[in-house]
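Quarterly update, task 2.4: FE2/S2 (inorganic) cluster-bound model.
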Amino acid sequence: MDVQTVDKILDKFPDTTGNLIAILHEVQNHFNYLPEAELRYIAKKIDIPITQIYSIVHFYNRFTLSPKGKHEISICLGTACHVKGAGKILDELKEKLEINPGDTTEDMNFSLEVVRCIGACSLAPAVVIDEDTYGDLTPKKLTKTLSKYK
Ligand code: FES
């Protein structure tokens, strides 16, 4: 467990209970997920039940309790993308990465998640990798796109 890092984060917030979400956000930014040992340490240190932390973590879907890959792929299965063949792109992603949505590749390079509309319907089918949006995807274009992230 990385006590020093957690202590540094907690020190930034004099009102720890009132800033619990911001604290969790910083912890996740540092570790790329919310490690259980660190969450238990925070609960003990600020004297709140661990269940209070878990209820926040489960409420906000931006928080994750499992390690994420270096690159996060969000594939859109919203209506426009679905109609334009997002299912095939998802199948291709699953086959190439050998993971299902919600999982991370063994080499920790990619995490995959399904989302509903990323506001790029005119580019359907579309995926977001980290901060970049890729549209009009075909399985061939997807392969080329993924190779940028190896
Ligand atoms: S439905 Fe996929 S971007 Fe809108």
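Highlight for this quarter: Residues 76, 78-81, 117-118, 120-121, 124, 126 surround FE2/S2 (inorganic) cluster (CB under 6 Å).
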